[in-house]
Amino acid sequence: xxxxxxxxxxxxxxLSIVVLLVYFYFTILFIWFxxxxxxxxxxxxxxxxxxDSTQLVxxxxxxxxxxxxxxxxxxxxxxxxxxxxxxxxxxxxTNVITNDGQIIEVQMPEPRLDDMLRRxxxxxxxxxxxxxxxxxxLKA
Length: 140
Prior knowledge:
- With 140 residues, this protein is α+β, with helices and mostly antiparallel strands.
- The protein folds into two domains: 2-33 and 117-139, no CATH class; 39-110, no CATH class.
- It is built from four helices and six strands; from the N terminus they run αββββαββαα.
- The chain has helices at residues 10-32, 72-77, 113-124, 127-139, and strands at 39-43, 48-53, 63-67, 70-71, 92-98, 103-107.
- Strands 1, 2, 3, 4, 5 and 6 form a six-stranded antiparallel beta sheet that branches.
- The longest helix is centred in the N-terminal third of the chain and has 23 residues, at 10-32.
- It is elongated.
């Protein structure tokens, strides 16, 4: 603990605290402000592949090539584009097109508690590493 009182160590401790605060900030953004489309998907070479769905219109392993006005090619070309950006719970997303040409309308659901918990757990894997590095620093 005595290393904490040395002036040269204070900027490192401040940086460590700032990194922790940024981590919490992005965790909160991910849990409460990222759109919940009602299904989980991953980007593949052919499109967005549905992994898990609470929406009855989707099947697991179905591939989507367009969501709203955003095509998969536009998504790959622009790193700042995000599927379902600008949609709120209750909005109907039209033009969800699958690789077999099927057009589907999807209503954005309200986020459920299990969705929020799943996202929280997905971000918590980083926290022990952050915490242990701070403890190691304070003991040094």
